[in-house]
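Design job #97: recover the sequence.
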């Protein structure tokens, strides 16, 4: 009955199966396969293979899994602040940059960059007794990674700074009457331009001397360079390069009454003292945290003030080699420390947490110090400097404002708009005071130097020159010569403006 219900296809299939079975039986395939299998088992030999032991020091394989597959919420904090100093506030959960190991705790000799710079290969001498001199700095190997087009104002004939004054209320560049003759005569000459080191310059300082023009600068690779602008030697260009640190230089201190002693701080957690005569770098302080800033009171050379870790301020007694005081002043790293020249007990700090604070060291308690004045910005504050008279404080923030805090008790704060967003390849802008309280100098993204008047609450002038081929971001005013201004770029160049 079952076969009668089969379809034509099923009957055909059963017939094929039956025919195949008869064919297999006629060829005796099953019996031959069994015999072959038995012979194979008798002839098979077994070998004991010892497993290959992997070295214990081998790095374990880490399987990368996304937060989504692990059932965890997404990380919305973004990149850490150390990835780029121009990004906004750093998440508190990100640990500070740790110094590299092994840590060198003793003095180091003249350590120069081993990279080839300007076609001159800097080879380290065994005795470290020879200065490392750079060439004419015309190599393109260390050009700034930011490629910029030439400004249309300088495509033709050369124009000096004194004829390029930009009025906020007028379009274009116009001639206006300026109050200070020295400011109107500022010019940038070719002999005052040099690429003194590779990489981004973080700090630039003039030597406090009226008898010579000497510049010290530190870059992101741990190099410190010195440029004697007045060098007349035909064989040397007056540029000397050292490498006492392994990370970005965060501060350089030049002693006014002992210029051969130079302090330097670095993100690697080291503070070193250079003896320029012996060309040795003595270790002053070693920290497991990052040192972000370095400063000193004008009348006190025995103590160093430096920003350490996430918002900490440490006071280091050089005589005892110990920390005398320390506070937690901010929620994030301290970018600059400035002392009032008229009252060295008044100190200003600024931080990536978006604030700048004024403190009185005489009334600061150890546990919860109270500020005299708090200046708030919407984004990270990269500099806060007192004016020469001590009556005003200038702050520079990523919220595109330059803040001016003044008054008898620093109760008045006004904001002046300025584009301060430099991106990740250029050091952040830091506006500095000139030689009095009249002007603030700050770089701009068009390869110029903006001059801001706090009294007029606006930019009153822009210094530009065809000799300036990159964006100046860090500045210093010569303490002994009015009108001499040094600007440094992310390509290792230094420009020195001076009156004609």
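Job complete. Output follows.
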């Amino acid at each position: 009955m079952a076969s009668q219900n089969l379809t034509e296809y099923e009957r055909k299939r059963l017939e094929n199966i039956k025919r195949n079975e008869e064919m297999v039986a006629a060829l005796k395939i099953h019996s031959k396969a069994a015999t072959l299998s038995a012979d194979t088992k008798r002839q098979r030999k077994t070998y004991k293979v010892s497993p290959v032991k992997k070295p214990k020091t081998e790095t374990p394989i880490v399987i990368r899994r996304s937060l989504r597959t692990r059932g965890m919420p997404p990380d919305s904090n973004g990149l850490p602040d150390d990835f780029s100093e121009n990004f906004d506030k750093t998440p508190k959960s990100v640990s500070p940059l740790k110094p590299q190991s092994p840590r060198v705790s003793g003095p180091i000799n003249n350590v120069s960059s081993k990279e080839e710079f300007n076609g001159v290969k800097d080879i380290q001498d065994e005795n470290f007794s020879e200065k490392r001199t750079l060439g004419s700095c015309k190599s393109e190997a260390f050009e700034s990674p930011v490629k910029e087009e030439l400004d249309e104002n300088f495509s033709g004939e050369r124009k000096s700074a004194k004829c390029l004054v930009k009025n906020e209320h007028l379009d274009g560049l116009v001639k206006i009457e300026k109050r200070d003759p020295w400011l109107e005569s500022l010019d940038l000459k070719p002999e005052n331009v040099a690429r003194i080191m590779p990489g981004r310059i973080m700090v630039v300082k003039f030597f406090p001397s009226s008898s010579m023009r000497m510049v010290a600068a530190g870059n992101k690779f741990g190099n410190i360079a010195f440029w004697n602008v007045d060098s007349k030697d035909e064989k040397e260009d007056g540029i000397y390069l050292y490498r006492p640190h392994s990370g970005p230089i965060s501060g350089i201190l030049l002693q006014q009454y002992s210029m051969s002693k130079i302090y330097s701080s670095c993100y690697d957690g080291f503070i070193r003292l250079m003896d320029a005569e012996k060309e040795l770098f003595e270790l002053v302080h070693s920290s497991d945290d990052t040192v972000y800033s370095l400063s000193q009171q004008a009348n006190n050379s025995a103590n160093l003030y430096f920003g350490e870790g996430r918002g900490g301020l440490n006071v280091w007694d050089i005589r005892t080699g110990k920390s005398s005081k320390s506070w937690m002043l901010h929620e994030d790293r301290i970018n600059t420390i400035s002392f009032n020249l008229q009252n060295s007990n008044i100190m200003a700090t600024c931080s990536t947490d978006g604030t700048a604070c004024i403190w009185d060291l005489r009334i600061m308690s150890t546990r919860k110090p109270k500020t005299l004045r708090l200046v708030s910005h919407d984004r990270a504050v990269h500099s806060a400097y007192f004016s020469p008279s001590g009556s005003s404080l200038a702050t520079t923030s990523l919220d595109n404002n330059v803040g001016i805090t003044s008054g008898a008790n620093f109760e008045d704060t006004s904001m002046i708009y300025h584009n301060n967003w430099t991106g990740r390849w250029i050091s952040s802008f830091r506006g500095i005071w000139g030689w009095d309280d009249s002007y603030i100098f700050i770089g701009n993204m068009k390869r110029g130097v903006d001059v801001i008047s706090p009294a007029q609450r606006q930019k009153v002038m822009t210094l530009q020159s065809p000799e300036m081929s990159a964006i100046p971001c860090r500045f210093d005013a010569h303490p002994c010569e009015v009108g001499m201004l040094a600007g440094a770029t992310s390509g290792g160049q230094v420009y020195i403006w001076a009156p004609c």
